[in-house]
Amino acid sequence: MFFDSFSDFIAMGTHGPYVWLCYGIFALTMIFNFVGPRLKRKQVLKDIARQARREDA
Amino acid sequence: MWQALKRLYHKMGSPKWFYEITERWSPWFLWIGTALMAVGLVWGLAFAPADYLQGNSFRIIYIHVPAALLSQSAYIMMAVAGLVGLVWRMKMSFIVGKVIAPIGASMAILALLTGAIWGKPTWGTWWVWDARLTSMLILLFLYFGVMAIYNAIENEDLANKAASILSIVGSINIPIIKYSVEWWNTLHQPATITLTKKPTMAPEMFIPFGVYHLGILLLVCCVGVCAHTYRNSMARAPHKLGKETTQSIIKIGADTYVF
């Protein structure tokens, strides 16, 4: 372990905000990459269902 | 060996095989990738020593450099896929290009944002219009261009062609990004990781980097081949389907109707 304490680890010297902001953005990007396609898939299914209803009517 | 590769190439060109193979591989990619990435991140964040010059802000490198490398290799892959699609009329190849674009764009955004945040404590500024930063921004716009073409053009053939041509022409930007730190006097530091030379990083910093990079690479492959994205791109254009097909899609979900 490089840091002496947990608060040391959070503070990252004086660079805490920069480092943690980067890792936060990274986490969001990865989550979006996985969740995005799923949401789009739902949307596509909904569109197809709507289209089918229109054709029935 | 050559024959086996050739066979794999032809198999991957057929949607049926592509679907089967990727479906089998992608959970492995997902879990091995997640594990490697977790190990690399904890190692890099908590155990690697701080940089003697930049202090702890150097830990951003564990995200920044893999994201930048991935955004460029994804672009090359997109351009190659476009070329293969145009020359051999391989449909699968257009789908690959289409699926990679948003993933590559997300990596380019990640690289640009983490770069800006890293720049603040290191250079004292969020952004400069220097060669490396500007050419990376252009890479992002190229991705946006390809995505915009697919969104804007309804005709699938036309969209495939236009997007492929844009990605092939845009690949001129890749060597410009790579050599920008050598050709011009930039604020950006020269490459840390190269194929030919030893990394300019101490081993205790570099090993977690390697572990993490492999992890994110596998994960991105997983997202990329991830059947969800793939099926999505096929599930568009329902107007081409007959009524019975549409009904069965609604019953069983979009997954199965494609083939």
Helix and strand layout, with pairings?
The complex is a heterodimer of chains A (57) and B (259).
Chain A: H1 6-11, H2 16-56
Chain B: H1 2-12, H2 15-47, H3 61-88, H4 91-123, H5 131-152, H6 156-170, H7 173-183, H8 203-225, H9 227-235, H10 243-252
Helix pairs in contact in B: 2-8, 3-4, 3-6, 3-8, 4-5, 4-8, 4-9, 5-6, 5-7
Folded structure, characterized:
The complex is a heterodimer of chains A (57) and B (259). Helix content of chain A is 82%, strand content 0%. By secondary structure, chain A is mainly α. Chain A has one domain. The longest helix of chain A is centred in the middle third of the chain and has 41 residues, at 16-56. Chain A is rod-shaped, with a radius of gyration of 22 Å. The mean pLDDT of chain A is 77. Chain B has 259 residues and is an all-alpha fold. Chain B has one domain. In chain B, 75% of the residues lie in helices and 0% in strands. Chain B contains 10 helices and no strands. Chain B starts with a helix and ends in a 7-residue tail after the last helix. Mean pLDDT of chain B is 77; it is low at 235-239 and 254-259. At the A-B interface, helix 2 of A face helix 2, helix 3, helix 4, helix 8 and helix 9 of B.
Question: In a nutshell, what does this entry contain?
Answer:
Chain A is an all-alpha fold and 57 residues long. Helix content of chain A is 82%, strand content 0%. Chain A contains two helices and no strands.
Shape of chain A: rod-shaped
Helix count of chain B, per DSSP? Answer: 10
- Content of β-strand of chain A: under 5%
CA gyration radius of chain B, whole angstroms: 20 Å
Low-confidence runs of chain B (pLDDT<50, min 5 residues)? 235-239, 254-259
Rg calculated over all Cα atoms of chain A: 22 Å
Total domain units of chain B: 1
Largest interface summary: A-B, 34 and 46 residues
**Separation of termini of chain B?**
30 Å
Q: Termini separation of chain A (Å)?
A: 67 Å
Low-confidence stretches of chain A: none
Order of helices and strands of chain B: HHHHHHHHHH
Overall pLDDT confidence of chain A:
77
Oligomer state equals heterodimer
Order of helices and strands of chain A: HH
Strand element count of chain A: 0
Summarize the main sheet of chain B: none
How many helices of chain A does DSSP assign? 2
Query: What percentage of residues of chain A falls in helices of 4 or more residues?
Result: over 70%
- Helix content percent band of chain B: over 70%
